[in-house]
Transposon Tn7 transposition protein TnsD C-terminal domain-containing protein (Drouetiella hepatica Uher 2000/2452), 246 residues
Amino acid sequence: MSNGFYAARLNLPFPRKSNGSRSRLIESPELPLNRIHQSDHSEKLKLYRQKWLSARAAYPSKGRTFMRNNFRRLHSWLNRYDKMWLEANLPVSASYKSFPKRIGKAIVDWSACDVQLSNQIPSIIERIKSKPGYPKKISLSEITRELGSNSSLRQRLSKLPLTSTEISRGLESREDFTIRKIRWVFDCYRVQNAIPARWQFIKEARIQSYDLKLAKVQKVLDKAIELLRIQNQTTTALTEVEEYTE
C-alpha cells in the first residue's frame, strides 16, 4: 500500500510539507544530576584552591619545583581543571627572579646577577648539609634544585664566574660524601648506644664497594665503629657502678 493510504487512515496531510531542513530534537531541560555534579565540582574547586593557598603560605620561600613535587596530586588536579588560576598563584619563577631578561636590545647586567647569586651559594650548601634524614650529596644538581632553576643556572655558568667558583668550592667529592654518610650513621648509633656489626654499619651508610677501597674511608669507618664500642663499654661500666652503689 502507498504512503497516502496510511496517511488517510491516520487523518494526516499527504504529501507532507517540508521546509527542506532536518527536524531538530527538542532539548531536554538540564537534569538535577548534572546540577549535583556541577555543585560537587565547584566545592572541590574551592577546597583545592584553599589547600594550595595554605601550602603556599606554609612554604613561602619555596619555588615551583618544590611545590609541584611535594603537592603533586593537588598541583595536577588544579593544572587540569583550573590552569589559569594555578598559573596566577604559582611562586614566581626562580629563573625570572635570578636572571635578568633582555628587554629589546638592552645588555643584560650579568656581573650584578653573578654577585647576587654567588652570595647565595654558601647558605644553600649549608642548608643541604643540615637537612634532616639521610645525607644528600652536595652536587651541581642539588644546588640548582635548591635555587629552583635546574636548567637556567647550568646554561649560564659561563657568564657567572663568581657563582661558578663558589659552586666548585662547595661541591662534594665521592670520598667526602661517603665520610659524611659514615658520620651521620655514627651519630644515629651513638644516640641509640648500639654497636652494629661492620656489615650493618656499611649497609646503613649505603657505602659502595668501590668506596670501601679508599684508605681514608676505611680509616674513618674503623674509627667510628671503635668509638661506638668504647661508648657502649663505658655506659655499661657506669650502669654497673650505679647499681653496685645503690
